[in-house]
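Now for our specimen.

. . .
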Amino acid sequence: MNIEESYYNYLSSLDQLTLYKAFHKNLRNNDCVLGEELLPTYLQPYFMDREKRSYLANVTEKLTSALEKICVHRFESLQLNELLPMSPGFEELCRIDPHYTGHQMVIRLDAFYDPRTEALKVIEFNCGDPSGMGFQAGVVKAIEKINKSYKYFNSLNFQFDNFIEPLKSILLKKYREFCINRSKVYKESPSLALMCKAGSLIEGDFRKIVNDLTKLGSKVRLVDPFDFTYRKGRLYVGDEEIDIVYRDIIDDFWMEKREHNPKDLLEAYKNGDICLLNPISSAAGDFKNINYIMKCGEFDFLFTSEEHEVIEKHIPETFPLTKNTQSQVLKNKDKFILKPNVGFGGYGVVIGHQLSEDDWTENVDKFIQGDCTVQEYVEIPKYNFSNISEDLILNRNEKYVNINLWAHGGKFTGAFVRASEDKIINVCQGGGLVPVCWYSEV
């Protein structure tokens, strides 16, 4: 009997109504909500043999290093401007010196991984504002609470990832560097603001991070981008001076065509009076063309031989949709997917083999008018999750899964998976977020 079956048997031995109510209560108590609705997730974690961890860590760290070099090159030359395009206003923001080194501080790699074959393909990078660290912590707490009496589960040498501690570590590390470079006094207990637009769908994610950072001894608060005031070279929320800002999506506090942006925060950042993470320049890594830059060969001079080896093995074929590539794409519907070069949440993604020839042609003709990336279709793995339905029936449901690999300061810090009945897997489109449980039998 494998661990998934054993876990299912354990859940089936419990009172289903009590279990259902307790799990949902634990989720809500840990801010696992999207707006007012509970975050989609499952009673069962994604079990993975601990021996796989070093393999995933190596891939994550090599690709993160390669990505950092691409971002450096983007701002040091004009060579990548067409592939990673920015409006003049956004380009100006990205070129503001954050007064610490590096573009990629906290990032998430989205990948498809089959642990049985170790087939791993990284399909894109989430760099400017990767979400889910708080949700991960909340789901872990909810799962752990219902498993305190499960002897088999507790007999395993198991581990859930914690992203809040490495987040605190990288924030303090870059704050120290910022203070040195700006000749500012380093505070041992700086005031930290986690910035998320009030009413955001993922506000619960940030509330949980605030809660856990507070438990770690941080002086931290959740703020809206318009809560800041900037006076005499200092940034405040109310009467409290803020030393570090960790931000959510850039659109929450800056849009080129929006009449009113939070000018106090932006002015403080431009003047070097606030330590802001992630730096706005990190958004250079969000483009879907990043995979093409890694893979095409033209930019191999940027990478070490070890990075190149990982790229060749783990980055799927990716290229821009142009007049020169249109014919190839039209002839190979089942091989490719289309996605906007600039996009998030899985919106706008078109999977070729799910369409008729006419619909595929129509989509290619539409996408070629904009900024579109073509990517090789990667077979999506499936996994069986145990969960209780609303009518209190315990089921094992097979879902498509992708694995989300995290790096803080260039170092691998863990993973969670997202799961869905649909091949486009995203929490914003109803997919579930599930923590990875690393285990080894003792």
Notes: The mean pLDDT is 92. The first helix runs from residue 3 to 12. The two ends are 16 Å apart (CA to CA). The first strand starts at residue 33 and ends at 34.
